[in-house]
Amino acid sequence: GGQPRNVQPFSDEDASIETMSHCSGFSDPASFTEDGPEVDEEATQEDLEYKLKGFIDLTLDKSAKTRQAALESLKSAFSSKILYEFIMERRMTLTDSIERCIKKGKSDEQCAAAGLACLLCVQMGSGIESEEIFKTLGPVLKKIVCDGTASIQARQACATCLGICCFIVTDDITELYSTMECLENIFMKAYQRDRDTNGVSSTHNTVLHVSALLAWTLLLTICPMNEVKKKIDMHLHKLPSLLSCDDLNMRIAAGETLALLFELARETDADFFYEDMDLLTEKLRALATDGNKHRAKVDKRKQRSVFRDVLRAVEERDFPTEMVKFGPERMYIDCWVKKQTYETFKEILGSGMQYHLQSNDFLRNVFELGPPVMLDAATLKTMKISRFERHLYNSAAFKARTKARSKCRDKRADVGEFF
């Protein structure tokens, strides 16, 4: 029983099959092949469920490697499919498995289990069943987050999971405040580190502080306005100190949190005034135009892009609207609150984000998209451009790109000859 078993992971091929009976009416247009064979949905559904049952059983295996592989396969399936009915029947079994893996597993297994817990709540949405899951897992997650002897990676994963699950599940304001306080106690240590001139606290904990800060910020977006005011008063003067952190991710997390706090502050009070505005905008402008040679080009490019937007938000109350396409629909991200929420779920769902935006009732409620758009196969097929049209488009784009590059190359050649 202790020998590792050959676990066949949930593959991209499995993810490409439309399986859920109540979602079979819609799919990504790209999933329909021209003149392809019809898929027996009932058979593929049974095959998928058989695989998933096997993975659930393997989460109890004696081998840590087997348990982790099973958790990763379940994560892959949950992020790429809507499996509400299947999970509803096995939610307690899954919850027990996740709890056991977080309590007794090593770092990698704990991270995988925490990720699966996030996806389990995303699949279940807000409701009594999800509340039961969070009542079981919430205390375990908090214990790991606050446990200084646990690995940083496990604490980081549990902090993210705690924030997301609380965001999805809780209607209890007391539980919301308790969770935020737990996360606050973690990332506020980064303030202390900046005041510590001896540099005793190293960057080893920075990844944990970043995850705790982002999870806390997500929960702040669903707080009552009186609580938002308290949190703004508590943190708005301390967060700018994190902009000087050596870690890029911490600087970006602090900058985006500041932009969100200013947005919320101005919503609650149209005449909101920040005393140290000149000093803050000077810091943000320096980060938006950073040219330090000791930093990698990719990091500098990313930092400049983020802080240009942050500076615009703080100085001009402006937000660069982004458009997200999924299937036949479009969603506009037009504020920092929406951006923070979108980025959080995109991080845990990965490539499955578009599919969940199309078909996950909970996510559609969060982003106010209304009920799922039901499209039959015939409609989807008409929406898809033919292979010949796609070839013509790609050819035209290729020619235009080649011409543009040729002009640039010619200019370089002239400069070279001149010198």
TrEMBL record:
<keyword id="KW-0217">Developmental protein</keyword>
<comment type="subunit">
    <text>Interacts with PSIP1/LEDGF.</text>
</comment>
<feature type="domain" description="Interferon-related developmental regulator C-terminal">
    <location>
        <begin position="360"/>
        <end position="413"/>
    </location>
</feature>
<keyword id="KW-0221">Differentiation</keyword>
<protein>
    <recommendedName>
        <fullName>Interferon-related developmental regulator 1</fullName>
    </recommendedName>
</protein>
<dbReference type="InterPro" id="IPR016024">
    <property type="entry name" value="ARM-type_fold"/>
</dbReference>
<dbReference type="Pfam" id="PF04836">
    <property type="entry name" value="IFRD_C"/>
</dbReference>
<comment type="similarity">
    <text>Belongs to the IFRD family.</text>
</comment>
<dbReference type="InterPro" id="IPR011989">
    <property type="entry name" value="ARM-like"/>
</dbReference>
<dbReference type="GO" id="GO:0030154">
    <property type="term" value="P:cell differentiation"/>
</dbReference>
<feature type="domain" description="Interferon-related developmental regulator N-terminal">
    <location>
        <begin position="19"/>
        <end position="315"/>
    </location>
</feature>
<dbReference type="InterPro" id="IPR007701">
    <property type="entry name" value="Interferon-rel_develop_reg_N"/>
</dbReference>
<dbReference type="GO" id="GO:0005634">
    <property type="term" value="C:nucleus"/>
</dbReference>
<dbReference type="InterPro" id="IPR006921">
    <property type="entry name" value="Interferon-rel_develop_reg_C"/>
</dbReference>
<feature type="region of interest" description="Disordered">
    <location>
        <begin position="1"/>
        <end position="38"/>
    </location>
</feature>
<dbReference type="Pfam" id="PF05004">
    <property type="entry name" value="IFRD"/>
</dbReference>
<dbReference type="InterPro" id="IPR039777">
    <property type="entry name" value="IFRD"/>
</dbReference>
